[in-house]
Each structure stands twice: as structure tokens, then as C-alpha cells.
């Protein structure tokens, strides 16, 4: 399995996950965001020549008010900090139970933590769906103050 930047070669129209909004974003918006440098969509594919998208995620740079972080993370930081945002993460229905969601998350963490060493960023933030909170908490994300669906993973 490979994680590659989304390209015209990839079949966005056949992708189906449980969340219609995630399907629609991939089909209608992902390439526009990529071209305008709003976010970086990455796709999981079987190999370099496969057009089938098994899963995807998108990330972008962002800023965060330090006051939103868990209290233990606020010390000695300026009022606004640079972060990366995991904007979307989804796997195709046919990949359910394969562990692909975990692999997508690990690739996103690895890719953004490496980028943070070059362009700076103190962590990764995700606005989770209620059903996904436990998934992210399992991998070290922490809930933000007053925002139980907004999660933070420090680098």
C-alpha cells in the first residue's frame, strides 16, 4: 500500500465511505483545494498504477489559540501557535475492519510531524465526529478545553 498525493489518475467517483460529506468532498472539492494550496489530500492506493482510492486524508497548516489547548500544554507558548490540521480522514467501505483508518492516521502524523521540523508546528489538531473521538484518544490525542470534539496531538 502506498500513500500518494491525490492526482487526476485516481478514481474519486468510486470512493464510498459511511459519511456522505466525506464522499462529496473527495469527489467535488479535494482537487480544487489541492490546486489552490488550501489543503493537501493524500490517498491510499494498492500501488502506483492503481486508480482505486482505498482511503484518504487531507491536512493543512493552521493556527490555534494556546488557551484552547489542554492546560498542561499551555506553558511557555505564545498566545497563538502554528499547528497542522487533519481536515479529513476516511476509508472506503470495502476496507472496513482492515486497519486502514489507523494506517491513514499514522501516515498523517508522520508526514505532518516531519513537515513541522521544516515549517514549524507544535502538533496536529482534528475536529472529530462524535463516533471517532475514542479512535483518536487511543493514539495519544488529547481533548481541548471546552471542545470535547476538538483533539490535539503534540509533536
Through-space gap between termini:
25 Å
Task: Give the overall silhouette.
Answer: globular
Average of the residue pLDDT scores: 96
Largest sheet: number of strands, sense, barrel closure: 7 strands, mixed
Q: What is the rounded Rg?
A: 16 Å
Q: Given the helix and strand composition, which structural class is it?
A: alpha+beta
- Kindly give the count of domains: 1
Please count the helical segments: 3
Element-by-element helix/strand order: EHEEEHEHEE
What share of residues are in beta strands? 25-35%
Task: Describe the overall structure.
The structure is a single chain. With 155 residues, the protein is of the alpha+beta class. The chain has one domain (2-154): Gcn5-related N-acetyltransferase (GNAT) (Aminopeptidase). It is 27% helix and 32% strand. The protein has helices spanning 20-35, 100-119, 133-138, and strands at residues 2-5, 40-45, 55-65, 80-91, 123-127, 142-144, 147-154. It has a 7-stranded mixed beta sheet with strand order 1-2-3-4-5-7-6, with helices on both faces. Strand 4, helix 2 and strand 5 (123-127) form a beta-alpha-beta unit. The model has no long low-confidence stretch (mean pLDDT 96).
Would you spell out the secondary-structure blueprint of this structure?
Elements: E1 2-5, H1 20-35, E2 40-45, E3 55-65, E4 80-91, H2 100-119, E5 123-127, H3 133-138, E6 142-144, E7 147-154
Parallel strand pairs: 4-5
Antiparallel strand pairs: 1-2, 2-3, 3-4, 5-7, 6-7
Amino acid at each position: 500500500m502506498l500513500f500518494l498525493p491525490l492526482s487526476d489518475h485516481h478514481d474519486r467517483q468510486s470512493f464510498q465511505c459511511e459519511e456522505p460529506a466525506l464522499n462529496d468532498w473527495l469527489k467535488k472539492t479535494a482537487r480544487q483545494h489541492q490546486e489552490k494550496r488550501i489543503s493537501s489530500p493524500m490517498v491510499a492506493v494498492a500501488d502506483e498504477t492503481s486508480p482505486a482510492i482505498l482511503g484518504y486524508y487531507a491536512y493543512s497548516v493552521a493556527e490555534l489559540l494556546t488557551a484552547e489547548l489542554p492546560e498542561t500544554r499551555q506553558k511557555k507558548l505564545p498566545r497563538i501557535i502554528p499547528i497542522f490540521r487533519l481536515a479529513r480522514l476516511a476509508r472506503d467501505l470495502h476496507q472496513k475492519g482492515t486497519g486502514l483508518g489507523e494506517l491513514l492516521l499514522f501516515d498523517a502524523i508522520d508526514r505532518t510531524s516531519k513537515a513541522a521540523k521544516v515549517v514549524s508546528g507544535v502538533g496536529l489538531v482534528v475536529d472529530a465526529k462524535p463516533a471517532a473521538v475514542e479512535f483518536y484518544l487511543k493514539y495519544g490525542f488529547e481533548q481541548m478545553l471546552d471542545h470535547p470534539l476538538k483533539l490535539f496531538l503534540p509533536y
